[in-house]
Amino acid sequence: MIHSLFLINHSGDIFLEKHWKSVVSHSVCDYFFEAKEKAVDPEDVPPVLQTPHHYLITVHRDQLFFLSVVQTEVPPLFVIEFLHRVADTFQDYFGECSESVIKDNVVTVYELLEEMLDNGFPLATESNILKELIRPPTILRSVVNTLTGSSNVGDTLPTGQLSTVPWRRADVKYTNNEAYFDVIEEIDAILDKSGTTVFAEIQGVIEACVRLTGMPDLTMSFMNPRLLDDVSFHPCVRFKRWESERTLSFIPPDGHFTLMNYHVSSQNPVAIPVYVKQNISFFESGPCGRLDITIGPKQTMGKTVEALMVKIHMPKAVLSANLTATQGNYTYDLPNKLLIWDIGKLNPQKLPNLKGILSLQAGAAKPEDNPSLNIDLRIQQVAISGSPRFVSTYNWATVFSHCSICFSPLCTGLKVSRLEMFGEKYKPFKGVKYVTKAGKFQVRT
Amino acid sequence: MSASSAFNDEKGGSSSVGEPEYGHDPASGGIFSSDYKRHDDLKEMLDSNKDSLKLEAMKRIVAMIARGKNASDLFPAVVKNVACKNIEVKKLVYVYLVRYAEEQQDLALLSISTFQRGLKDPNQLIRASALRVLSSIRVTIIVPIMMLAIKEAASDMSPYVRKTAAHAIPKLYSLDPEQKDQLIEVIEKLLADKTTLVAGSVVMAFEEVCPERIDLIHKNYRKLCNLLIDVEEWGQVVIINMLTRYARTQFLNPNMNESLLEEENDKTFYGSDDDEEEEKEKKAEAPLPRRKPYVMDPDHRLLLRNTKPLLQSRNAAVVMAVAQLYFHLAPKVEVGVIAKGLVRLLRSHSEVQYVVLQNVATMTIKRRGMFEPYLKSFYIRSTDPTQIKVLKLEVLTNLANETNISTILREFQTYIKSMDKDFVAATIQAIGRCATNIGEVRDTCLNGLVQLLSNRDELVVAESVVVIKKLLQMQPEKHSDIIKHMAKLTDNIQVPMARASILWLIGEYCEHVPKIAPDVLRKMAKSFTNEEDIVKLQIINLAAKLYLTNSKQTKLLTQYVLNLAKYDQNYDIRDRARFIRQLIVPTEKSGALSKYAKKLFLALKPAPVLESPFKDRDHFQLGSLSHLLNAKAGGYQELPDWPEAAPDPSVRNVEVKDSVPEWTKCSSREKRKEKKVEKPFYSDSEGESGPTESADSESDSASGSEIGSGVVGSGSRTASEESEEGSESEEEEEKDKKMMTAKKELKKPVQESESEQSSEEEEERKRERKKSKPRKSESDDDDDSESESSRSESEDSESEAEVKKKKKAAASRPPAKPLKKESKKEMSLLDFDDFEPAPPPHVTPLNSFLSSSLVTDLEGLSLSDAALSPATLSPSGAMKSYELLHRIRGEGLSVEYCFSRQPFSPDANMVAVQMQFTNSGAADTKSLHMEDVKLQSGMRVKEFPEIELLPAGETATAVMGIDFCDSTQAANFQLCTHTKKFFVSIQPPVGELMRPVFLTENEFKKEQGQLMGMNELSEKLTLDAECRNEHAIVQRVTAAANLSRVPCGSDKECRFAGRTVTSGSLVLATVVTKEAASAQLTVNCEKMVIGTMLVKDVLLALTQ
Q1: Using an 8 Å Cβ cutoff, are B955 and B917 in contact?
Q2: Inter-chain residue contact B680 with A198, CB threshold 8 Å
Q3: What does the pLDDT read at residue A80?
Q4: Which residues contact B644 (CB under 8 A, 6 or more apart)?
Q5: Among B66, B86, B383, whose Cβ lies nearest the Cβ of A17?
Q6: Cross-chain Cβ contact A55/B59 below 8 Å
Q7: Biggest alpha carbon distance in chain A?
Q8: Closest Cα partner for A166 from A254, A83, A241, A88?
Q9: What is the pTM of this model?
Q10: For the residues of A371-393, what is the DSSP string, one character each?
C-alpha cells in the first residue's frame, strides 16, 4: 500500500527517505514542491496529489511534511491516519517531532519505520509493542550504549504482537500503583459581532495516565452518561459494555493514552466563559486604524479563567501595531500578520483591555473586513485532588475506601462516579482532574 | 547515534580502528577518494570481530540509506554479517539487505541460507522474522524458495507466522505474477483461518492478488463479519472495504423499492420518510426472504450490525470505511447513523478533514437529510485552510433547503467579508447555486449579489457579475434595472470574464434596455482593440444582436466593430467576424441562413444549471482514492451494481466440522467469555445472525429431547455463540459434537433468539389465547378439513384408507403405535413434526403450563390424536412476526404483527392479523386505535378494538382482519395513541392469502386436471442442501404458504392444497423430487397472479 516515505522540512529538503518496496526516486517529490509553491499556506497544499505514475499523500505535522508515495488504490484516510500515527510515535519516542530530533535519531527512526510497516502494510503500530522492540532513547541509555556498545534494540521478541491485548505489556510492575484521568472539555464556539452565539458545542477527551502493576481491568462509570452524544474509544475499551451499560470497561495500556473522545449532545446549553467587547476600525483617510478590545468573564461558575490569550489575524495591509495593554503583553508578528495578546489570568475586578493604533501600509486601500478573534483559555477545576501529581503523596485509597471518586464537574457536568479495578489485588491511587479549555473559539467582528 | 555526527566524526571513528591502514594512500584526495576511503573504513569495521564496531558501521550505513545516498558497494561486507549474533546488527543488516538485494542479486543469495535456517527455528517470532526478510528480498531466483516458505508458514502452528505468510503473499506476487494460482490456494487456506491476527493481513493479500475471486469469500463471510471487531484497526479498514464490494455482488439493493414506496406515500410529508423507515426495518427484521417485496438477507444485516460499533473507533480510516459501507449498503433510513461519526472527524487533522469533507459533499447530494442536523458543524472559521473552507461551503450549499436557507445565507454574508478572496469568490458562487436551487430566495440572493457589485474588490465584483448573469437568465423580464446597473459597471470593471458576462447580458436582453444597449456598444467599439479576446467575442455578439433588433442606430457601429475584428490578431475573432457579417448583413450572395439570423441569435437560451462538482461522484466507492481524485486510480476495483436477483445465499453456509486445533485459539478466554455473556446490543435483529431458517424455531429443541431439555438449552447456547463469535473452543466443540449434527447446529442460533425474544410467560399467554380462539372458528369451518389439515403431514406415507380408519380410532388408539410403525424413521418423524409450522393452534389445556421440553416429550403421544394436532404443540415462535412499529420511532411503543393463520371469525374472507403492542416507554399509552385506513379498491379492514390503556412496560395483543382481495397490496393506516399518530402498513406475503383445505388424493388429481394450461405453472429447481428430504420440503412449503398437505402414495411427491381467502379459488401445489437435488414445482391456481407469486416464494423457500 504505502510504497515510500519522504520526510521534508519547510525549506523543501528531503532529509529522510524510506522505501518498503522498490526504490522510488525522490524526484517524485517535485510534484509536491510544485503544489507547495502554488499554495500560499502550507496548510493549503492538497493532501493528495496525482502524478503520472504515483499518488502522493502528504500530512503536515510540526513544520514537517510526511510525504508518502502510493501506486495503487488505497483509502487516503488509511495513509493519512497512518502517517499521523508515525508522527505520534516519534513524538512519543523523542519528546518532539522535529527535523533535528529525527536526524539525531535516524537509526532509531529507521528501525521504527521498518517495524511499523511490512511491505507497505501496517504491522506494529501500538507504541507498547514498538517500545518492546526498540527501546526509546534516554540520556542514560545513550551513555551506556556508547560505553558498552549495547543497543537500543530490545533483545526480547515482540511478544506483544501475539497477545490479545496488544496495547499492554505482559509484566508491568510498579511500586506505586497510580491511575490518573484528565477530563478535558473544549468549547468550540463562534460568536458574532454582537456577542451572540452562532454555534457552540463541547468536545471532550479523557486523557489517562495509568501506571498499574499486572493486568488490571478497570471499569469507569459516569454520573450522567446521557450527556455523551457521540463517543470514540481507544481500542482497549469494550464496545459492548458501553452499549449496554454505558460504562467504560478496559484493560488499560501502560502509561499515557487517550481513553475516549466525546461530544456532548447539542441539547445541552453551552456556557460561554468569557465575553469580548471589541472595536476594530480602519479609517477611510489616513493610513491607520483603531483597535480596542476588552474581555470579561461571563459564565465561569466562579472559577478563574487562566491562560487567556487572544490571537488576531490582521489584514495584509496592517504594518504595525502601537497598542497598550492594561494586562499582559502583546506581540505583532509582521510576516504572518498575527497579533497575539497574552493576558494570563483573568481578573474580574479589573478587566483587561488592549487599545491603540494600527498603522497601515501607505497607499493600500482600507481593508473592508475586520479580522476575527481567536481566543484561548483554560479553566482548571479546583478539585479536592488538585493536580494529580499531588495525589500520590496522600493515600487516596484509604480516603476513598470504596474505590470511587467523586469530584464536581464543570463544563458539561460530566462526572466520573466510580472507578473500579478488577483482576489485581492491590489498591491503586486514583485521581480525576477536570479542565475546561477553549477549543476553536472564535469571535467574528 | 546521531546522523550528523555519524558523518562528522567518521574520521574520528576510523582513527580508532587504525588510521595507518588507509592513510597510506597519498594519491587519494578530493571527493571521490574520500568517498572511497570512507567506505573502506566502514568495510574494515564490518570485518572486525567486535560487535560494537560492526554496529557503529551499520548505523552509519543506515544513516546513509536514510539520506538517500548510495551504499551499494558495501554489499559484500555487509552481507557477511547476516548471521551476526548481535540482534541490532542483524536487524540493520536486514534493513540494508532489503534495500539493496534487488541491485546485487547474486550476492544476496549468500544470505538466503541463514533465513532458511531461521524458518525452522522453534521460536515462532524468529520464524516470522526470517520469513519477513526472506520475502522482502526482491530476487527472482528465490521465488521457488519463497513459495515453499510461504506455503509452509501458512500452515504454521503460530498465528503470528501465518500472519507473516499472509504479508508475504503480495510481495511474492509483485515479484512474480506467474505464481498467482498457487498463491490463491494459499490465500484460500489462510482465509479460512479463524484468528483475528491473520484476518486483516490475508484480506489485504486477497485484495492485492485476486480481488476478482469473490467466491473465495463466501465460506468465510460470516466469520469475517464476526471477527471484525477484534481485528486490528488497519485490517478492519481493508476487510470493511472488501466486504462492501462483496455485499454489492451478493445481496439485493435494500432501497430498490424506494420509488415504489414513495409513490404510495405522500411525498412531501415528512412522515413518509419515517413510514418508509418502519417499512424497511420491519422488512429487515423479517427473517425469511420469501416475500416478494424486499427482504434483507440476514447476512446483509449481519454485516451492517457488526460494522456499526466501529463507527466509534479512534481511527479515522475505520470510521470512514464503516461510513462508506453504510452509504453503499444500508437501507436509506439507516444510513443516518454515520453522520455523527463523520462530523466528529471534522475535529481531526486538516488532512483528515479534507478527505472527510469530500466524502460528505458527495453524500449530501444523495442524502441531504442525513447531515441537516449537523449544519452548524460545517460553519467556517477564519482559521480554516482555504481548501477546507471551500469544501465546507460545498457541503453547506448542498444542505440548503427552504427551511434553513435564511440561516445559511446569513452565514454566507459573513463569509463574503473574509480576507481570503478565493474563498469569497467560492461563496458568491455558492450563493448563486442556492438561488438557482431554491426559488424562494432567488430575489433575495440577487439583491445581495447586486449590492456586491459596488464592492471595492474587483474579484468579488467580477464573480458576482458572472453569477448574476446566470441568475438573470432564469427570469430576465423582471430585472431590467439590474441589467441597466450592470451596464454602467462596464466603465469600471476590468476583469475580462465579468466584462464579457455583462456584454452578453446586454446583448441577450437588449430589448429590455433599448436605450442603453447601443451606447454600451459605442463605448466598447472605442476600446475594442484593447480588450481581451473573450470580451472581443462578446462585443461582436452584442453588435450582431443589436444590428438585428435595432439596425437603425447601430448599423454603422456594427460595421465598425466587424471591420476591427476582421484585422484582429486572433483568428477566432477574425472567423467570428466573417461569419457574423455573412449572417446578418443581407447581400445577394448570402444564402438562406440570413433569413433566420434573428432566430439564430435571439433564440431563447435555456438557463444554466448550476451543479455541484460532486454530483455523481458516488459511482466511485466512497473513501477511496479514486473518489477523492474523481478519476480511476490504478488497482481500483469498481463497486459493482446491485444484482437483479440475489445469488444463492446458501453458499455462505458453513458446515461446522472437525474440531479446531488448540493453537487457533488466539483471543483470550476471558475476553471472549465476557462477550458471550453480554447480549448483543441490537437485540431486535439478533435472530438473524444465524442462517436463514427460522420457521422451525423452538420446535428444534425437540430433536434433542432425548438428552433432556436442560442440556439442550446449554448446548444450543454454545452453538449459537459460536456462530456469533465465529471462533470455537474445544470444550464447546466437544459438547456440540455430542449433541447435534452439523445441520442442526446451523439452526440453533435462530432458535435461541426466538426463545429469548418471547419470555416464557408471554408464550403461555399466547398459547392460551390461541386455545380460546380456534375453538370458536372450528365450528364454522368444515370439521373434516380442519382436523385433517393439521395432522395430515404425520400421515404422509399412509394410505387414504388408513387415514379414515385412524380418524375413527383416533381417541382409543394407543399413542405409541404410530411411532413404532415407522420406527425406521423415528428420528426423522420427530423432526418432521417439529418442523411443521403452527396452523390453527388448538392447544390442550395441559400445554399452557407445561414446559417446552415436556411438550416435546409428549409430542410423540399426541401424534395420532386428531383432536390434538401435534403441530400446535410447537410453540408460538413458529409464526413469523413482522415489525409494524419500531420502539424507537414509536417513542416507546412497539408493535409487531403476525399472520396467525386462523380464520377471522367476524368475516371469513379476511386474513387474521395478530398484533402485539409493547409499551417499553416510560409513560402509559392510552386509547390505542387505528385511523385513516388507506386501501386499494376492494380491500376491507376490520379494525381491532380500541385498547383503552397500555401501561408502561406492559404488552397487549389484538386481532384485526384484513381482506386483501387476494392481492399483496399493502394496507396502510395510522396507528393512533392519545398523543401520537404513526403511519404504518401491513403487507402480506402471498402465502398468507390462502387457507388450507383438505383434499383426498383423488380430489386433488381431479381438481388439478381442471386447472391446466394457463392455470398451471411449473418450475424446475435445485433443492437446497438441507432440504433434500420430504420433511424438510413439507416444512418449508407450509412455512411459505398456508397450505395443507394432501396425502399421496408416492414418497417422491408432496402435494399441498388451499383456497384463497377472499375468492376461495383453489390453490394446488406439487413438489416432485427427482434424482440428486433436482425437483419440480407445479402450482395450479385459477388466479394466475397468485400462482406466479406463490411459485416464486415457494421456490425461494426450497432453494435456500
Answers
A1: yes
A2: no
A3: 94
A4: none
A5: B66
A6: no
A7: 77
A8: A254
A9: 0.66
A10: PPEEEEEEEE---TT-SHHHHTT
